[in-house]
Amino acid sequence: MLDSSATRSKLAMATIAIIPARGGSKRVERKNIKDFCGQPIIKYSIDAAIKTGLFDEVIVSTDDSEIARTAVKFGASVPSLRSVKNSRDHSTLADMMLEEIEKLEKRNIFPEYLCLLFATTPTISAQEIASGLKLLQKTNAQSVMSVCEFTEPVGRALKIENGLVKMVNPRNKFTRTQDLETRYFDAGRFYWIKRESFKKNKSFINRGTVPFVVSRLLVQDIDTIEDWKMMEMKFKLLHKKR
């Protein structure tokens, strides 16, 4: 067992952070521990989680021993490696979370709240994470997810069909962009969930999910080296402002 502390008491109730970090990233090699502005990128999420003071344990869910060692080095724990079944390319985050909940319960730890934090969100802050929990408690929702507004109006989206440009929604052809409904996407920063609700619904998003809206400047999906460089530019800009 890899753990950042020698012993842990059995907790009847707790608040736990889970950071998923598979070793098999394809498009950006070793993405979850790749150097980002001088630190392994996962360190930013671990640091932010620890800084909140909210969590009884910050767990990194990984199938990779090098990622596990890196996580423990920076203060997270890896009680055991993730199963092969939930470490494949098509494994879902929901299945991973259910596995981690089962492991916690076997250790006699029954969290009321869990926070799934993504490993490649270097702009995440302790304040943002804490605000997500406050929103969950204030609204008595089943879950909270980070979302971001699309910069372009998706109501005027185009598609290419048989080599020709067509509108996805032709009825919006003459609608002014400012009159179109605002749309959002999953910002991929965190989900706050209630353990019992998640076990029942087996999903991070359901009828009881409320949004936590974040700035587009904080968000960057990292699937390519170009995405990585764009995130570094945003990170440096944000830190320059601060």
Structural commentary:
Helix content is about 30%, strand content about 20%. With about 240 residues, it is of the alpha/beta class. The protein has a single domain, classed as Alpha-Beta Complex (Spore Coat Polysaccharide Biosynthesis Protein SpsA, Chain A). Strand 2 and strand 3 (about 40) form a beta hairpin. Helix 1 packs across helix 4 (about 125-140). The longest helix has 17 residues, at about 225-240. The termini are far apart. About 35% of the residues are buried.
The stretches of 5 or more residues where confidence is low (pLDDT under 50) are 4-9
Total domain units = 1
Major beta sheet, strand line-up = 4-1-5-9-6-10
**Beta-sheet strand percentage?**
15-25%
General form: globular
Task: Characterize the largest beta sheet: strand count, sense, and whether it forms a barrel.
Answer: 6 strands, mixed
CATH fold node name: Spore Coat Polysaccharide Biosynthesis Protein SpsA, Chain A
CATH architectural type: Alpha-Beta Complex
Helix content: 25-40%
What's the topology here?
Layout (H helix, E strand, L loop, with lengths): L14 E6 L14 E2 L2 E2 L1 H11 L4 E5 L3 H9 L19 H14 L6 E5 L8 H14 L3 E7 L8 E4 L2 E4 L16 E11 H7 L7 E5 L11 H17 L1
Helix pairs in contact: 1-4
Concise overview:
The chain is 30% helix and 21% strand.
Q: Tags for this entry?
A:
single chain; 242 residues; alpha/beta; Spore Coat Polysaccharide Biosynthesis Protein SpsA, Chain A; 6-stranded mixed β-sheet; 30% helix; 21% strand; globular
